[in-house]
Design brief:
The chain is an alpha+beta fold. The chain is 33% helix and 23% strand. The protein contains 16 helices and 23 strands. The strands form seven sheets. The protein has a seven-stranded mixed beta sheet with strand order 17-18-16-15-21-22-23. The protein has a six-stranded mixed beta sheet with strand order 3-2-1-5-14-13, sandwiched between helices. Helix 12 packs across helix 13. The protein is globular.
Length: 509
Amino acid sequence: MTNSASGAPSQYLGALDQGTTSTRFMIFNRQGHVVASAQREHRQIYPQAGWVEHVPSEILSSSLMVIDEAMLAVGIAANEVAAIGITNQRETAVVWDRKTGEAIYNAVVWQDTRTADTVTHLASRGGQDRFRAITGLPLSTYFSGPKIAWILDHVPGARARAEAGELLFGNIDTWLLWNLTGGPNGGLHATDVTNASRTQLMNLDTLTWDPGMLQDLQVPAAMLPAIRSSSEYFADMKTTSLAGVPICGLLGDQHAALVGQACFRPGELKNTYGTGCFLLMNTGASKVDSAAGLLTTLAYRFGNQPPVYALEGSIAVTGSLVHWLRDNLGLIDKSSDIEDLARTVDDNGGVYFVPAFSGLYAPYWKDSARGVIVGLTRYVTKGHIARAVLEATAFQTRDVVAAMEADSGIPLKQLRTDGGMVVNELLMQMQANTLNCSVVRPQMRETTALGAAYAAGLGCGFYKDTDDLRSYWSVDKTWSPDIDPRERGRQYRQWKKAVYRSFDWEESE
């Protein structure tokens, strides 16, 4: 394989992984092993309760820096990199000026709930599922479409400018792609099918922006990016030490993790344990309409091949609950301490923690839910609280898996895991116990960045096909259930009781 910009031999692939709390650039060899990595955090802005924002220019500058830092660390030239892929936090909306490249407002993050009134109003005219047949999504504050409308309605003059074609919208993938390929000077304004499917604006059957959705959510078509495949040639880099290297992959982060886990067969399922948890099940060339509270979404589309669909269950608060325990309550000094603290007790002491800090996502979709801790007695220690925090991730995952099994008719035999929390071996054992199936951790745990690199490799011919990618996937460790079935059932019944007590805590005005 040669770099198209230089004709020189290319041995590596790059992946820009822009996440909720930080941005990384990773360089991989052909076998999917990391040869260099650089990472920078960015600010989390909370203007008021339920609002979460990022500064788009800060994300861009961090991206530029980590690319150069990783390249410098490994000491390779741009012509040794065949292509790069981009993967990103999804549903985070940016609106910017086409001529200047300046964002007109901070990025409104996927966790943000400021559009709750808009969602309630839309649901009053047809219910929460009124758009599922078109977009595969329920009405929720989660998705980009209502966020775009909020920005246009709250920044003076923005709506008129958007309708005149002066403003552009993108999820973070589009914001980065446009800037990295020239910005105001010819930058490519595009997205891929996976990110487009998270806006609540794309028709899942046609893979185009749906005119009816644009009208209902009041989003001008002139500001929307072109929808492309997840793996193809997009444009060459115009900035950083990788100027001239082609961008050939674009995937939302959870879709990238599915690719990085080599889940290319229908029924294969992965769970990414990060700020939240995100489960995706490959359902093949046919989309499965969920009757159990899941999202129907695009898994990926490679080149001109038919699109591949997925069922997804998104959990808002998992890893961030550990951070909350650390930062808000001070029960641990660093996140990794939670495993040792939880091991100081043999069980949860009757405590269950439902972390509905900004509502509940799949399969409940309760924006009015709020966090609850139940079962407290004088017996309870901070060890029991720590254990309940970890179990909350395992139980929420079981809720989603049960919904996936109901929708797909496929019983789960194995869960492939990735993300930052998989180093917690107590959590992985809890997950196997709760699901009553094997839980597998791969050798390569940073599968989100790897999936973006794989997409880029397929898009530029670095890899022949998905069989190539599957051959590189390998297991690090497997956990099997070791709990009495009656105890498993009792714990899950208690969990469900706790979940129901979180419902409808927040009252509508």
